C-alpha cells in the first residue's frame, strides 16, 4: 500500500512558478520536471534515497539510526523520521521497538480465490499457524441474521483467531457460522488446523462461492498490539460472505490484515461483448 506524494498536495504554487518553457514570460506554462523536483518536499527526497538503500540491502538488514542518517543527508531527525515512517507504513521497513529499523521481507501475496488461510500460506512455502483469541456464541442481529440465513436472535458461533505465517502475526480473523447448521463445531474445531477441512469432513459442507470486499482501515490499539505494529498504520479490512454449492450461507468473516506485510493479486479478463 504505497503512498505517493504529489507536489500539488504541498500547498499553493508560487505565482512565478511554471513560466519556464517559452522564455518570454508572457504567461504561465506547464511546469517542467525541474520545477516539480524543486517543489518536492525534502522528506520525500530523503525517502527516495532511503528506498535506494533498502534495495541494496538484504531483508532483515539493519538501517542506520536516525541520528546518522540526519548527518548524512544534512537534515533534521524529524525529516528523517517522517521518511522512515512512510516506508514502514508501506511495508518497506520494519521498526522494532528498542532494536532499530530493518529492511522488511517481501510481502505475502494472496490470490483472490476461494481458498483458506492455511492453503494460501502453504502454497507460498510458509508455515501457517493460528491462536484462538476468543470463541463463543453471539445472538444474530438483523444484519448478521440476513448474511447467515438465520432468524434474528438465533445463536451464532463466533471464532476469533490470530493468524500467523512462520511465527509472524499476519491477520486477525473473526468468523461467524450458524450454530444450528453446524452443531458441535466448537468442539470439533480442536481437531483441525483448517476450518474448511472441518466443515467438509464433519458436516459434508464445501464452499463453492463467496463475495469478498477489501477496504482500508487504520490499526486500533488492540489490533496494533496483536499484530506487532503501530497504532494508526494502514490495514487491509476484508469481509467474506461464503456459500455452498446450493447457495446456502456458510460463514461471514471479517479479517484485518497488516497492510505492510500483505498484498493481493487477481487475474482480470475482459467481459465478452
Task: Output the number of helix runs.
Answer: 9
Mean pLDDT: 86
Structural shape = elongated
Number of strands: 10
What CATH calls the topology of the largest domain is: Chorismate lyase
Total number of domains: 2
Report the helical percentage. Answer: 25-40%
Walk me through what this model shows:
The strands form three sheets. The protein has a six-stranded antiparallel sheet with strand order 4-5-6-9-8-7. A hairpin with a 2-residue loop joins strand 5 and strand 6. 28% of the residues lie in helices and 30% in strands. The protein contains nine helices and ten strands. It has two domains: 62 residues, Arc Repressor Mutant, subunit A (Orthogonal Bundle), CATH 1.10.10; 158 residues, Chorismate lyase-like (Chorismate lyase, 3-Layer(aba) Sandwich), CATH 3.40.1410. By secondary structure, it is an alpha+beta fold.
Tell me briefly what this model is.
This protein is an alpha+beta fold and 273 residues long. Helix content is 28%, strand content 30%. The strands form 3 sheets. A 6-stranded antiparallel β-sheet has the order 4-5-6-9-8-7. Strands 1-2 form a two-stranded antiparallel sheet. A two-stranded parallel ribbon has the order 3-10.
Amino acid at each position: 500500500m504505497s503512498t505517493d506524494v504529489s507536489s500539488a498536495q504541498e500547498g499553493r504554487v508560487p505565482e512565478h512558478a511554471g513560466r519556464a518553457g517559452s522564455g518570454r514570460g508572457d504567461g504561465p506554462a506547464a511546469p517542467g520536471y525541474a520545477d516539480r523536483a524543486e517543489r518536492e518536499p525534502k522528506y520525500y527526497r530523503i525517502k527516495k534515497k532511503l528506498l535506494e538503500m533498502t534495495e541494496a540491502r538484504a531483508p532483515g538488514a539493519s538501517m542506520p539510526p536516525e541520528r546518522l542518517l540526519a548527518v548524512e543527508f544534512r537534515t533534521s531527525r524529524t525529516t528523517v523520521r517522517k521518511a522512515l515512517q512512510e516506508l514502514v507504513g508501506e511495508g518497506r521497513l520494519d521498526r522494532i521497538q528498542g532494536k532499530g529499523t530493518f529492511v522488511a521481507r517481501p510481502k505475502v501475496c494472496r490470490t483472490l480465490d476461494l481458498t483458506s488461510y492455511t492453503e494460501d500460506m502453504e502454497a507460498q512455502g510458509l508455515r501457517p499457524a493460528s491462536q484462538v483469541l476468543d470463541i463463543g456464541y453471539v445472538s444474530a442481529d438483523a444484519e448478521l441474521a440476513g448474511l447467515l440465513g438465520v432468524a434474528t436472535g438465533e445463536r451464532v458461533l463466533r471464532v476469533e483467531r490470530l493468524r500467523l505465517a512462520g511465527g509472524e502475526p499476519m491477520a486477525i480473523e473473526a468468523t461467524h457460522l450458524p450454530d444450528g447448521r453446524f452443531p458441535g463445531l466448537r468442539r470439533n474445531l480442536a481437531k483441525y488446523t483448517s476450518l474448511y477441512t472441518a466443515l467438509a469432513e464433519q458436516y459434508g459442507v464445501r464452499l463453492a462461492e463467496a463475495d469478498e470486499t477489501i477496504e482500508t482501515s487504520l490499526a486500533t490499539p488492540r489490533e496494533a498490539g496483536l499484530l506487532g505494529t503501530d497504532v494508526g498504520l494502514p490495514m487491509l479490512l476484508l469481509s467474506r460472505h461464503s456459500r455452498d454449492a446450493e447457495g446456502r450461507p456458510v460463514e461471514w468473516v471479517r479479517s484485518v490484515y497488516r497492510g505492510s506485510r500483505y498484498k493481493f493479486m487477481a487475474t482480470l479478463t475482459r467481459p465478452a461483448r
